[in-house]
Amino acid sequence: MNNTNENKTSDIYLAHVDFETGRIQSFQEHTDNVTSYAKSICPMEEIQKLVEAAALFHDAGKLSDDVQKDFQDILKKGDQAHRNDLDHSTAGGRMLWKMMRQKTAAELLSTVVYSHHGISDCIDFESGCTLQERRAEKECQEDIVKERFFQIFDKEKIQKVCEAADAQYVQINKKIGMFVRKSTKQNRHCGNGYFYIGMYFRVLLSMLLDSDWTDTEKFFQNEELKQRISKKEIQKIWQQSIQCFENYLNHEIRNKAENGQSLQAVRQEISERFYEEAEKETRLYRLTVPTGAGKTLSSLRFALYRAERTQKQHIIYVAPFNSILSQNADEIRRAVDDPDIVLEHHCNVILSEGKQEKDYKKLTETWDVPIIMTSAVHVLNVLFSGQKRDIRRMHTLCNSVIIFDEVQAIPKKCMELFNLAVNFLTNFAESDVVLCSATQPSIKDLKENNLSECMEMTEIIEKYEEAFRRTDIVDLTETEAYPGGMEIEDLCDFTLQQAETFRNVLVIVNTTECAKQVYEKIKSSCSDEDQVFHLSNKLCPQNKEDTLETVHAALRKNRESGYTGRVICISTPVVEAGVNFSFGCVIRSKAGLDHVIQAAGRGNRHKEYPWFGKIYIVQLTNYSGSVVKTKI
């Protein structure tokens, strides 16, 4: 660094420096950028002043002598001169605490500032000290920081921001209190007010992290700070997507013979119900329809119309299994006819190296895409993880339409927290949520932490049940033919017998080792005309996707007249949800009722067979005679 540049920076308070290029970013520029950006991405007007106050003070500690000297050392000596022990969040948090003048609101916002470089417990369980007490004891040159801060920013204007933030907090607190009292009065007990304040904290911290990291990244990449997709642009995207989606329904779904014409009228009726619900004000829906009822496209139709009508910022589709995401992401991209507005975020996404991988990584960090398709694990992490990269996405869950598919797969140990998170999203965060499943979990009220009022999107009336009756379930777990259950050889023989009758059979067993053994034995017993497949999560993502496509193609060919080969697929439960298979016969190793129902959804899915699909439930033993336990 030459003397000219050193003199240039001597009277400027710094926020970032780049040794390699000699570039600097002033404290004022960074603070202004973060504050402006946080306000622009704020999904709820009721918290805009709160996040503005947090953004203004978040890096105030950088004005201390120690931090400013550190920046000068980096410019002179390089990054190795940087001190990692410096704290630049404490001073701003303490200043904000004093500026707010009201203990509760001040505690919320100062904790947001303290946490933007790492979350810590608000109470130390060993010492009993609170976060505020610990920070109050730290040395941070608060007087020097305060003096320099108000040399840069007008104190009266800052005070007005803090007063407006405090007023917003008071209104939020009233809103939470009314909700908790109402649910208690109705004997539903939908959670504690402190939980919902905690969710507001995560949203505020999310916006601060996203804004801070975005501006910092742009500085070091020497790029201009670009705004996210505007509300006007989002509205245009929803309108175009609706038009493309309706065209896709008419030309690719409703008039396509392989989708089962006998069921299309009922699917159309369900879809129209979804369309009508998009015009209503209900925030939380439960959707229970049989497998094969077209809930993915119907729920997307609802989401597009609701997002356009209520100016939502995102549509978020959440599923518990990557197989569901992969299949449905392809269909949704085709339906909206614009792959660039759909982000598929899960561990099995396959990318080419280079710019595509770099761009994808950026999008997964911010979720700055109109339609997001991601796993339940990612969403649960956003809601509850202590990792900053997960918290960063929290604000994208607000002011959105969120579809939770196969919600019955959410782990039971997470259900109460999940209920409360859904309550926050629908009652406070301006989001609409649809809980989808063919086998909904019990809606029996808990002692506490229940879902708030939830409306059935479409009732499963008798005509739907009859219309979607496509299979007969036959229990073979306790028969004289197989006392104590089937051995591997018995299952293979039984499968080949059914393949002679139905020409295609899907076998679902509970472990990968069992699936492998059955596959190898059946493969060795079949002719070259037959096609035998194996599926499990042990396959690499690309191999699994290729196998799924090959099975679909084999089934289409199998249904053609004159084709003599048999199609047999041996799988773990990985195919039970989100895989659009339609076999004439399904054999399911004994498991819970939800697994049986999902397995039945892979049989005669579109009523394209002239018979009722057979679903055989068998009890499979290992060589010691014990029942094989469920394990994907």
Strands in their spatial order, largest beta sheet: 5-6-4-7-8-3-9
Q: Which structural class do the helices and strands define? A: alpha/beta
Radius of gyration in whole Å, from Cα? 29 Å
Mean model confidence by pLDDT: 87
* Percentage of residues in helical conformation: 40-55%
End-to-end separation in angstroms reads: 59 Å
* Approximate strand percentage: 5-15%
Please characterize this protein's 3D structure:
Helices cover 50% and strands 12% of the residues. It has 632 residues and is of the alpha/beta class. Strand 7, helix 18 and strand 8 form a beta-alpha-beta unit. 44% of the residues are buried. The model is unreliable at 1-8 and 623-632 (pLDDT under 50).
Topology:
Elements: H1 3-9, E1 14-18, E2 23-26, H2 27-41, H3 48-57, H4 65-77, H5 90-100, H6 103-115, H7 131-136, H8 142-152, H9 155-185, H10 193-220, H11 231-253, H12 261-277, E3 284-288, H13 295-310, E4 314-319, H14 322-336, E5 342-345, H15 355-366, E6 371-375, H16 376-384, H17 388-391, E7 400-404, H18 415-427, E8 432-437, E9 455-456, H19 462-467, E10 471-475, H20 488-502, E11 504-508, H21 512-525, E12 531-535, H22 541-558, E13 567-571, E14 585-589, H23 593-600, E15 613-618
Parallel strand pairs: 3-8, 3-9, 4-6, 4-7, 5-6, 7-8, 10-15, 11-13, 11-14, 12-13, 14-15
Antiparallel strand pairs: 1-2
Helix pairs in contact: 2-3, 2-10, 3-6, 3-9, 3-10, 5-6, 6-10, 11-13, 12-13, 20-21
